[in-house]
Design a protein that fits this description.
Structural class: alpha/beta
Number of strands: 13
Radius of gyration: 26 Å
Largest sheet: 4 strands, mixed
Helix content: 40-55%
Strand order of the largest sheet: 2-1-3-12
Shape: globular
Length: 442
């Protein structure tokens, strides 16, 4: 009897252990595991995109799900908070956006960011290399961008038609200025707004000739002859040709700028391709009226080297002190590195994704979307981009870039473009000298 009780007890224990082990096994490789991943951004639309990407991730990885916790901070607050977290080693998110102009601040010394080179190792040649270079240091990649930011022209076809001007006739900047004079004479409407508090126009036009604020070695070239001629041309478009004006709000990427453009105050806007989203969000009255085209260029004799300039950008990073570095990197690869991710970036954000091999696919399989329905040539948007894919320059981003951009906006362009109180040459020379002094004190 005693022996039978012991045997029964043994059987019960065995069954209990078996059940427990089975339960433990279900939380192993075949179990559904969810990990909290924190993400910071300063753009609400980016946050929406990431949340959608997280849903796709969870569908594809049912055993390694993530609970993505997105926090949208004001621009300055987010970057300052992230810098403090990385410097102190406390409080950093698993993933964060970093705007291009701020990125040099995060590459100083030894970057406290995870190396993302392995995420693109098999596909590196498929990316716009100039975009990768912006977020790299010492041969390592630290950020993945959302877009190339290829600058294009947005033409209001109704205003052009009223003036009897064909937007397709514009190939060069000389053509653009000539068309602007006709439009101004026949309609009283300006050809464009020029940005003063940002360098969109200056960077495009100087970049097309291969110039920049800094050279490849980081030396200051702000006052070189090409830059001087570029700034003088922008000045003349306002005060000599009288076809342009400084944008309300200081630049077109402001509420004041959107409002004026939406009211048909200008016949064209020259901005990076990502500005498509601004039209949809802030300029509803122009639906069906805007045509997207390649930007005007210079002639070969004038020194043209590139069809367009890649401007703006946001590099997504993985802090090296994060708690879930490997998982964060794999999610980032899924959200922004793959070919499908590039297609999603276009469909959801309206950007020109950095994987150039996706451009042809998007062009050939263009689906109806809010973007194709808004622009008059919406189904041909990537037909505009693809011919330029091998001729896209990118503005250099170095440690002094934030200082240089501030000088260019608040001093140089303020005096030359807004106030018309100083000539282009002296203004650029003064700013260049100040930059060189700061460079020598570092």
């Amino acid at each position: 009897m005693k022996k039978r009780k012991i045997t029964s007890l043994f059987v019960i224990c065995t069954l209990v252990i078996s059940i427990l082990l089975t339960g433990c096994g279900s939380s192993g490789s075949s179990a559904s595991k969810t990990t909290d991943i924190t993400l910071w951004t300063f753009v609400g639309l980016h946050g929406t995109f990431y949340k959608s990407a997280a849903k796709d991730w969870n569908k594809a990885h049912p055993n390694e799900k993530i609970n993505l916790k997105v926090t949208v901070y004001p621009y300055a607050d987010m970057h300052n908070k992230l810098l403090v977290a990385l410097q102190s080693g406390v409080g950093a998110p698993d993933i964060s956006d970093v705007e291009l102009g701020q990125f040099p601040n995060f590459l100083k010394g030894k970057p406290q960011l995870a190396d993302l080179s392995d995420l693109i190792s098999k596909d590196k040649d498929k990316f716009a290399q100039s975009r990768l270079n912006l977020y790299s240091k010492g041969g390592k990649l630290y950020g993945l961008d959302f877009h190339v930011g290829a600058t294009v022209a947005f033409y209001n076809k109704d205003i052009f038609a009223k003036a009897g001007v064909d937007p397709n006739s514009i190939k060069t900047w000389d053509d653009y200025i000539a068309a602007g004079k006709v439009i101004k004479a026949k309609t009283g409407i300006l050809m464009s707004y020029i940005s003063q508090t940002s360098a969109w126009d200056f960077s495009l036009m100087a970049g097309q000739k291969g110039s920049d604020i800094f050279d490849d070695k980081g030396n200051v070239t702000l006052d070189d002859p090409i830059n001087t001629a570029t700034l003088q041309q922008l000045h003349d478009m306002i005060y000599v040709d009288k076809i342009s004006a400084v944008s309300p709000g200081g630049q077109v990427d402001t509420e004041e700028g959107y409002g004026a453009i939406n009211k048909g105050k200008v016949a064209s806007v020259i901005m990076p391709f990502w500005y498509t989203s601004r039209f949809l969000s802030y300029m509803p009255d122009l639906k069906g009226k805007m045509v997207v085209a390649q930007p005007p260029t210079y002639t070969a004799a004038q020194g043209n080297k590139y069809a367009t300039e890649g401007l703006g950008g946001t590099g997504t990073v993985v802090p090296a002190i994060g708690k879930n570095i490997d998982l964060a990197k794999q999610f980032l690869k899924s959200a922004k590195e793959t070919k499908q991710a590039s297609v999603d970036i276009w469909n959801e954000l309206g950007f020109d994704p950095p994987r150039l091999d996706a451009w042809d696919d998007i062009a050939k399989n263009m689906k109806d979307s809010s973007y194709t329905k808004y622009f008059a040539n919406g189904k041909q948007l990537f037909d505009v981009l693809t011919p330029m894919e091998n001729s896209i320059n990118s503005t250099k981003s170095v440690t002094l870039s934030p200082t240089a951009n501030d000088l260019l906006s608040t001093q140089v362009q303020y005096k030359v473009l807004l106030k018309n109180s100083q000539a282009a040459g002296p203004a650029l020379k003064a700013a260049s000298d100040e930059l060189k002094k700061k460079a020598n004190t570092k």
